[in-house]
Amino acid sequence: MGLSCALAQTARKLSGRVVKEGLVQELFLEAIAAAELCACCFELIIVADNFGVATYAIFLFLLTIWWAQVWGDATACPYTHMEDMVEGKTSPRNVALKTWAQLMGGCCVFRFVQGIATLLCRLASKSLSELGPKHAPLIDSFIGTSLVVAAFNFSGGYFNPVLATALKWGCSGHTNIEHIIVYWIGSCGGALMSVPVFKLPTVRNLLVGDTKAKEE
After folding, report:
1. Among 61, 136, 183, 203, which residue has the fewest nearby CB atoms (within 10 Å)?
2. Does this UniProt record's set of keywords contain Transcription regulation (predicted)?
Protein backbone atom coordinates (compact mmCIF):
# COMPACT_ATOMS: atom_id res chain seq x y z
CA MET A 1 0.00 0.00 0.00
CA GLY A 2 2.82 2.35 0.82
CA LEU A 3 4.44 1.69 -2.55
CA SER A 4 1.12 2.23 -4.36
CA CYS A 5 0.57 5.56 -2.59
CA ALA A 6 4.14 6.69 -3.26
CA LEU A 7 3.93 5.83 -6.96
CA ALA A 8 0.56 7.56 -7.27
CA GLN A 9 1.87 10.70 -5.57
CA THR A 10 4.90 10.72 -7.88
CA ALA A 11 2.58 10.36 -10.88
CA ARG A 12 0.49 13.28 -9.64
CA LYS A 13 3.54 15.52 -9.33
CA LEU A 14 4.76 14.54 -12.80
CA SER A 15 1.30 15.20 -14.21
CA GLY A 16 1.28 18.65 -12.62
CA ARG A 17 4.61 19.49 -14.26
CA VAL A 18 4.08 17.93 -17.68
CA VAL A 19 0.35 18.45 -18.36
CA LYS A 20 -1.18 21.92 -18.48
CA GLU A 21 -4.05 22.75 -16.16
CA GLY A 22 -7.44 21.94 -17.63
CA LEU A 23 -9.58 18.96 -18.53
CA VAL A 24 -6.69 16.77 -19.70
CA GLN A 25 -4.89 17.16 -16.38
CA GLU A 26 -8.14 16.44 -14.53
CA LEU A 27 -8.50 13.21 -16.51
CA PHE A 28 -4.97 12.16 -15.62
CA LEU A 29 -5.58 12.90 -11.94
CA GLU A 30 -8.82 10.89 -11.98
CA ALA A 31 -7.05 7.92 -13.58
CA ILE A 32 -4.22 8.11 -11.03
CA ALA A 33 -6.65 8.34 -8.11
CA ALA A 34 -8.66 5.37 -9.39
CA ALA A 35 -5.50 3.31 -9.90
CA GLU A 36 -4.33 4.14 -6.38
CA LEU A 37 -7.74 3.32 -4.92
CA CYS A 38 -7.98 -0.07 -6.63
CA ALA A 39 -4.39 -1.07 -5.85
CA CYS A 40 -4.71 -0.15 -2.16
CA CYS A 41 -8.11 -1.80 -1.77
CA PHE A 42 -6.75 -4.98 -3.32
CA GLU A 43 -4.09 -4.98 -0.61
CA LEU A 44 -6.72 -4.22 2.04
CA ILE A 45 -8.46 -7.49 1.18
CA ILE A 46 -5.26 -9.33 2.04
CA VAL A 47 -4.94 -7.34 5.28
CA ALA A 48 -8.49 -8.30 6.26
CA ASP A 49 -7.93 -11.98 5.45
CA ASN A 50 -4.72 -12.21 7.46
CA PHE A 51 -5.14 -9.71 10.30
CA GLY A 52 -8.89 -9.26 10.70
CA VAL A 53 -11.45 -6.52 10.11
CA ALA A 54 -10.15 -4.30 12.92
CA THR A 55 -6.73 -3.95 11.28
CA TYR A 56 -8.46 -3.49 7.93
CA ALA A 57 -10.49 -0.63 9.41
CA ILE A 58 -7.39 1.10 10.79
CA PHE A 59 -5.59 0.99 7.44
CA LEU A 60 -8.72 2.12 5.59
CA PHE A 61 -9.13 5.06 7.99
CA LEU A 62 -5.51 6.13 7.43
CA LEU A 63 -5.86 5.75 3.67
CA THR A 64 -9.01 7.88 3.51
CA ILE A 65 -7.21 10.64 5.42
CA TRP A 66 -4.29 10.40 2.99
CA TRP A 67 -6.56 10.48 -0.06
CA ALA A 68 -8.44 13.50 1.28
CA GLN A 69 -5.12 15.34 1.52
CA VAL A 70 -3.63 14.45 -1.88
CA TRP A 71 -6.42 13.78 -4.36
CA GLY A 72 -7.54 17.38 -4.69
CA ASP A 73 -10.63 17.59 -6.91
CA ALA A 74 -10.27 13.99 -8.12
CA THR A 75 -12.77 11.53 -6.64
CA ALA A 76 -12.12 8.15 -8.33
CA CYS A 77 -15.90 7.70 -8.23
CA PRO A 78 -18.29 8.45 -11.14
CA TYR A 79 -21.43 9.44 -9.26
CA THR A 80 -19.87 12.54 -7.70
CA HIS A 81 -19.47 13.94 -11.20
CA MET A 82 -23.01 12.86 -12.05
CA GLU A 83 -24.23 14.88 -9.08
CA ASP A 84 -22.29 17.88 -10.38
CA MET A 85 -23.96 17.43 -13.77
CA VAL A 86 -27.44 17.39 -12.21
CA GLU A 87 -26.56 20.56 -10.31
CA GLY A 88 -25.36 22.20 -13.52
CA LYS A 89 -21.70 22.38 -12.47
CA THR A 90 -20.35 20.26 -15.33
CA SER A 91 -21.37 18.84 -18.71
CA PRO A 92 -22.37 15.27 -19.67
CA ARG A 93 -19.26 15.15 -21.87
CA ASN A 94 -16.95 15.87 -18.94
CA VAL A 95 -18.76 13.28 -16.81
CA ALA A 96 -18.32 10.64 -19.50
CA LEU A 97 -14.64 11.48 -19.98
CA LYS A 98 -13.87 11.42 -16.26
CA THR A 99 -15.73 8.14 -15.80
CA TRP A 100 -13.74 6.67 -18.68
CA ALA A 101 -10.48 7.92 -17.11
CA GLN A 102 -11.43 6.34 -13.78
CA LEU A 103 -12.19 3.01 -15.46
CA MET A 104 -8.90 3.07 -17.33
CA GLY A 105 -6.96 3.84 -14.16
CA GLY A 106 -8.73 1.17 -12.14
CA CYS A 107 -8.56 -1.56 -14.77
CA CYS A 108 -5.02 -0.88 -15.96
CA VAL A 109 -3.26 -0.55 -12.62
CA PHE A 110 -2.57 -4.28 -12.36
CA ARG A 111 -1.20 -4.34 -15.91
CA PHE A 112 1.26 -1.54 -15.07
CA VAL A 113 2.58 -3.18 -11.90
CA GLN A 114 4.72 -5.62 -13.89
CA GLY A 115 6.25 -2.90 -16.06
CA ILE A 116 6.93 -0.49 -13.19
CA ALA A 117 8.46 -3.18 -11.00
CA THR A 118 10.69 -4.37 -13.85
CA LEU A 119 11.72 -0.76 -14.51
CA LEU A 120 12.70 -0.30 -10.84
CA CYS A 121 14.55 -3.60 -10.81
CA ARG A 122 16.59 -2.71 -13.89
CA LEU A 123 17.36 0.80 -12.60
CA ALA A 124 18.67 -0.72 -9.38
CA SER A 125 20.83 -3.21 -11.29
CA LYS A 126 22.24 -0.49 -13.56
CA SER A 127 23.05 1.72 -10.57
CA LEU A 128 24.82 -1.08 -8.71
CA SER A 129 26.74 -2.04 -11.84
CA GLU A 130 28.00 1.52 -12.26
CA LEU A 131 28.74 2.18 -8.60
CA GLY A 132 30.30 -1.25 -8.02
CA PRO A 133 29.83 -1.49 -4.24
CA LYS A 134 31.56 -4.30 -2.36
CA HIS A 135 28.40 -6.34 -1.77
CA ALA A 136 26.62 -5.49 -5.04
CA PRO A 137 25.30 -9.04 -5.67
CA LEU A 138 23.75 -9.19 -2.20
CA ILE A 139 22.18 -5.74 -2.55
CA ASP A 140 20.86 -6.55 -6.03
CA SER A 141 19.38 -9.83 -4.78
CA PHE A 142 17.71 -8.06 -1.86
CA ILE A 143 16.17 -5.41 -4.13
CA GLY A 144 14.99 -8.03 -6.61
CA THR A 145 13.46 -10.17 -3.89
CA SER A 146 11.75 -7.14 -2.33
CA LEU A 147 10.18 -6.18 -5.67
CA VAL A 148 9.00 -9.75 -6.26
CA VAL A 149 7.33 -9.77 -2.84
CA ALA A 150 5.80 -6.32 -3.49
CA ALA A 151 4.31 -7.51 -6.80
CA PHE A 152 3.44 -11.01 -5.58
CA ASN A 153 -0.27 -10.37 -5.00
CA PHE A 154 -0.64 -8.52 -8.30
CA SER A 155 1.15 -10.65 -10.89
CA GLY A 156 3.16 -13.20 -8.93
CA GLY A 157 6.32 -11.12 -9.32
CA TYR A 158 7.58 -13.01 -12.39
CA PHE A 159 9.74 -10.32 -14.02
CA ASN A 160 11.40 -12.77 -16.40
CA PRO A 161 8.93 -13.39 -19.29
CA VAL A 162 10.38 -16.82 -20.05
CA LEU A 163 9.99 -17.94 -16.44
CA ALA A 164 6.47 -16.50 -16.32
CA THR A 165 5.43 -18.33 -19.48
CA ALA A 166 6.99 -21.60 -18.35
CA LEU A 167 5.16 -21.49 -15.00
CA LYS A 168 1.96 -19.53 -15.66
CA TRP A 169 0.93 -20.10 -19.29
CA GLY A 170 -2.45 -21.80 -19.45
CA CYS A 171 -3.23 -21.27 -15.76
CA SER A 172 -6.78 -20.33 -14.84
CA GLY A 173 -7.63 -16.78 -13.84
CA HIS A 174 -6.38 -14.97 -16.93
CA THR A 175 -6.51 -15.30 -20.71
CA ASN A 176 -3.51 -15.88 -22.96
CA ILE A 177 -3.77 -12.29 -24.23
CA GLU A 178 -3.66 -10.98 -20.66
CA HIS A 179 -0.62 -13.19 -20.01
CA ILE A 180 1.21 -11.68 -22.99
CA ILE A 181 0.28 -8.11 -22.01
CA VAL A 182 1.35 -8.47 -18.38
CA TYR A 183 4.38 -10.77 -18.52
CA TRP A 184 5.84 -9.95 -21.94
CA ILE A 185 4.78 -6.44 -22.92
CA GLY A 186 4.78 -5.22 -19.30
CA SER A 187 8.16 -6.67 -18.33
CA CYS A 188 9.93 -5.93 -21.61
CA GLY A 189 8.41 -2.45 -21.75
CA GLY A 190 9.60 -1.72 -18.23
CA ALA A 191 13.11 -2.97 -19.01
CA LEU A 192 13.32 -0.89 -22.20
CA MET A 193 12.06 2.17 -20.33
CA SER A 194 14.93 1.83 -17.86
CA VAL A 195 17.47 2.69 -20.59
CA PRO A 196 16.34 6.29 -21.31
CA VAL A 197 15.15 6.85 -17.73
CA PHE A 198 18.57 5.92 -16.32
CA LYS A 199 20.18 8.53 -18.60
CA LEU A 200 18.03 11.37 -17.22
CA PRO A 201 20.25 13.75 -15.18
CA THR A 202 17.80 13.86 -12.27
CA VAL A 203 17.58 10.07 -12.06
CA ARG A 204 21.36 9.62 -12.37
CA ASN A 205 22.05 12.16 -9.62
CA LEU A 206 19.53 10.43 -7.39
CA LEU A 207 20.80 6.89 -7.97
CA VAL A 208 24.54 7.21 -8.58
CA GLY A 209 25.36 10.80 -7.61
CA ASP A 210 27.80 13.04 -9.43
CA THR A 211 29.98 10.46 -11.16
CA LYS A 212 32.15 13.08 -12.86
CA ALA A 213 33.14 14.60 -9.53
CA LYS A 214 33.99 11.14 -8.19
CA GLU A 215 36.20 10.37 -11.18
CA GLU A 216 38.12 13.64 -10.74
Report:
1. 61
2. no
